[in-house]
Amino acid sequence: MGKSNRNNKAKAFRSDPIAKPVKPPSDPELAALREARILPVIKDLKSPEAKSRTAAAGAIANIVQDTKCRKLLLREQVVHVVLTETLTDASPDSRAAGWEILKVLVQEEEADFCVHLYRLDILTAIEHAARSIIETLTATEQPFGKLLKAQQRLVWEITSSLIALLIPIALARDEILDAVVANPTILRFLFRLVASELVPHEIFEETLSCLMVLSEDNLPLGQALTDDQETRCYDELLKFKTGGGVRAVLACGVLHNVFSSLQWLDHSPGKDGACDAILVPSLSRELEQVSSSNGSLKTSNPEIAQVALEILASIGTDLQNTLEKGNRPQPGAAGKSKDEEWNGLGDEAADTDVDAVAEADDDDAMDVDGDHEKDDSDQEDKGEEDGLDDDDDDDDLDEDMDLVTGGDDSVPDTAGLDDLPTLRDLIHKALPQLIRLSSDSADSDETAAIQTQALSALNNIAWTISMIDFAEGENAHVFDVWAPAAKKVWQKTITPILDSDNADITLASLVTSLAWAIARSLSGDTPSDGTQHRKFMALYQASKGLEHHDEGEGEGHCGCDCGDDDPLQSLGVKCIGVLGCLARAPASIDVNREIGVALMSRLANTDDVAPPAEIIEMLNQLFDMYADEEQACDKEVFWKDNFLQHLQELLPRLKIIAKGVDKRAFEELRTKADEAVLNLARFIQYKKKHAPR
User: Fold this and answer.
1) Which residue ranges does the record annotate as region Disordered (predicted)?
2) Residue 488 in this model has a pLDDT that exceeds 90
3) pLDDT in the model for residue 565
4) For residue 63, which phi and psi values (nearest 5 degrees)?
């Protein structure tokens, strides 16, 4: 005879922890509430009488929104009862109430509650309910339309609860999202709701919203949706996007996520040429519904306008994947040889002794050949510039456009971007609406949110385009279309907001980031009135009044005004970026000197040392402003105002500042600080070598 398993015997006699009596709360008020309202409904929820169970489930669904009642219900293991008994009840009313209870609990509790439900196998319960709804909607013997109104109502109530549960549960953890998308019944349920004409308007919108959330950066879902032949959900979404209204916007949101995950871009479109270009006109038309009255925004549906703007902002960001393929150098572009230009830190400088470099004589200066170390593909790295030879001595707009487009031989705007239809439609269809919505004043929280979202969309588009190299006529077909639009953004959006002196720090940060991207892409030909740089100087001074941290004091301390965000994206850094761009040719010598002196003075201030991120950006801008010794500002400002001496004095202090940045808490900031030390030493030697004779 085999040995008995004592562990199994112990388990057999172990009491069920869920069945153990729950101790009443010590608080008298809660104890009384438990006795009066909670225990009776829990008892009825377990009653053998169907009517009692149904009534109890409905009662719990009503009181679960109350915080005290909800906490007491959770103490009484209401989730276990609902999952094991209520959701499998023979009564449809009880099942509907059970799903409503879970929906409210998920909405009111934290994300870890969703994880708890997942571990209790909530997806199996959702799958079972979803399959039942699919069968009901597709039944032929008893068509859904012939069911009693009460029966139809219960189906839609359960459907709504399932959809509301799926979103927060899927977002709680990546593994849960993967499990949801890997469940064919759940996907079939959502696809069926999109394709069915029986679905009420509210349920349809909830379904599209759910798919929009689930499909973001989700290749398996994108593939499943486009491969679906049973419901042809993808074809239905294409139809809805052209219909206008809420359905069109939400359908565009799902389609954009699908296109992005499948990499259906301008140069590699999907079915029937599908890419984001087919979505921009629909989204732009929806924005036209937001009216402007006496300079103020008016709309009957601010939420859907915000969604449309969010989608356009995402399209603007994803456009970079397309532009990387469309970033074509133009043949015959002429310029200075590498031996005659400052290219930043070269690969061979990595092992250079900075102290020796800083003290070397002109005869020992390093060769300045090499690549300027920066990541042009990272849209969020706003601390670097595309190139250091983008400044041309053009006197006015006509000469600049002749240089870029070839004068009278330039092609019409619409034809210039036929190979980049998404960018073309963003500029010609979306940008006019974005400019209007971002420049008009907001008289409510809803319209203020619309203005903010419009600025965000403009910001994403502008930064993506600013990553393209327009130096020496490269990508002229893009610049030819973008430059006039960018100048309009500056004049119609940036200038009015600057003139309003708005105290909203979020708005100031957004418009400054946008101004930086616009000025960066125009390479010194920004349509500033010659005084607007002072606005950004004042804004920089105001940013110093924000809370500053001390770098090197553990996590959360970076020495800037960014709070807990990226220090390289602080308002101060953005102001410096704009100022550097506004100082480039064809800016006047006076403007260049005013900005250059301001930056050098801030770097030289040892009593109020600038945060590391700001110092890095000041140096980046100074490198770009004075890289070309052929520019008038090099002799008239850099050398006359003795900038070289100030930079030499800064180098040893910069080394100390760089070492003070905690590389564990701020790895990118430390890396850029170390690069700034090497680049400054290299720049000093380059300027010595090319000093005026």
Assistant:
1) 1-27, 322-346, 362-417
2) yes
3) 67
4) -95, -10
C-beta separation of 469 from 520 below 8 A: no
Helix (H) or strand (E) holding 208: helix 201-214
- pLDDT of 284 reads 96
> Is residue 669 within 8 Å of residue 568, measured between CB atoms?
yes
Enter the tokens of residue 416.
């210039």
> Nearest CA to 403 among 336, 327, 335?
335
Backbone angles phi, psi at 136, to 5 degrees: -65, -45
**pLDDT tens by residue, 145-187:** 999 999 999 999 999 999 999 999 999 999 999 999 999 999 9
Question: Which residue in 34, 16, 132 sits closest to 74, CA to CA?
Answer: 34
Pick the most confident of 191-205, 310-324, 341-355, 432-446.
Answer: 191-205
DSSP structure string for 316-385: HHHHHHHHHHH-PPPTT-----GGGS-----GGGGG--HHHHHH--GGGPPP--S-----TT-TT-TTS-
Angstrom distances, CA of residue 519 to CA of 56, 459, 507, 541 = 64, 12, 18, 20
Tokens representing 412 are: 């019409």
Report pLDDT for 553. Answer: 38
Transcribe 531-581 into DSSP letters: SHHHHHHHHHHHHTTS----TTSSTT--SSS-TTS-GGGSHHHHHHHHHHH
The one-letter amino acid code at 187 reads L
**Residue found by looking up tokens 């293991």 in the block:** 77
pTM: 0.81
Residues paired with residue 441 on neighbouring β-strands, in sequence order: 296
The residue to which tokens 């519904």 are assigned: 289
Nearest-10 crossing angle of helices 245-262, 302-326 = 30
Length of the chain: 693
User: What is the pLDDT averaged over residues 296-310?
Assistant: 88
Integer Cα distance of 434 and 420 in angstroms: 20
Residue showing tokens 């919203």: 209
**What's the pLDDT at 377?**
38
- The angle subtended at Cα 273 by Cα 272 and Cα 279, nearest 5°, is 110
Residues 232-255 pLDDT 10s:
999 999 999 998 899 999 999 999
Model confidence at 384, pLDDT cuts 50, 70, 90, reads: very low
- At position 596, the amino acid (one-letter code) is G
Give kind and range of the element (H or E) at residue 293: strand 291-293
Main-chain phi, psi angles of 478, to 5 degrees? -80, -45
Mean pLDDT of 639-665: 94
**Cβ(386)–Cβ(467) below 8 Å:** yes
Structural tokens at position 647: 């930079």
Q: What pLDDT is stored for residue 693 in this prediction?
A: 78
Maximum Cα–Cα distance for the chain, whole Å? Answer: 105
Closest Cα partner for 329 from 472, 479, 483, 524?
Answer: 472
pLDDT band at residue 403 under the 50/70/90 scheme: very low
Assigned token pair, 471? 């130096």
CA distance 428 to 414: 8
Give the Cβ contact number of residue 398 at 10 Å. 10
pLDDT of residue 370: 34
Q: Is the pLDDT of residue 388 over 60?
A: no
Cα(693)–Cα(688) distance, rounded to whole angstroms?
A: 11
Torsion angle in degrees (nearest 10) through CA of 517, 523, 525, 527 = 10
